[in-house]
Design goal:
This is CidA/LrgA family protein. It is found in: Cell membrane. The chain is mainly alpha-helical. It has 2 domains: about 80 residues, no CATH class; about 50 residues. It is about 90% helix and about 0% strand. It is built from 5 helices and no strands. The radius of gyration is 21 Å and the shape is extended. The chain starts with a helix and ends with a helix.
Length: about 130
């Protein structure tokens, strides 16, 4: 019974440290954005820095961040609720431009599907050719 509690405490520690690490790199990216690279979003800078850290430390760091990332992903739909409420609040704008918005979403989704399938086809053919 003690073993199960120990593993639970370790998982909680890994989850909390993962959340702290993710938020820390986000804040570091925002700081770099404020003082150096104002044209690149801070969250993107933080993500690139965290990815570089993953490349350096490998699997050990992934194990620590995995719990926090899974927790963020689990509750991610809650962050989209305010956006949906905002769209519903401006229904007059949606009634005027709704068809345009819907058309743009369809066209952009279709273009993304085409571009990704073309790119993947090229990568698969490069891989199979040698």
């Amino acid at each position: 019974m003690r073993k199960a509690k120990f593993f639970n405490e370790v998982n909680i520690l890994k989850t909390v440290s993962g959340i702290i690490l993710i938020i820390g790199f986000y804040l570091l990216g925002e700081t770099i954005n404020t003082y150096l690279l104002s044209w690149v979003p801070g969250s993107i800078i933080g993500m690139i820095l965290l990815f570089g850290l993953f490349l350096v430390f490998g699997e050990k760091l992934v194990d620590w961040v995995k719990g926090g990332a899974q927790l963020f992903i689990k509750y991610l739909p809650l962050f989209f609720v305010p956006v949906t409420v905002g769209i519903i609040q401006y229904d007059n704008l949606l009634s005027v431009f709704g068809v345009l918005f819907f058309s743009l979403m369809l066209v952009s989704s279709f273009l993304i599907i085409l571009l990704v399938s073309y790119w993947m086809d090229r990568k698969v053919s490069e891989f199979s050719c040698g």
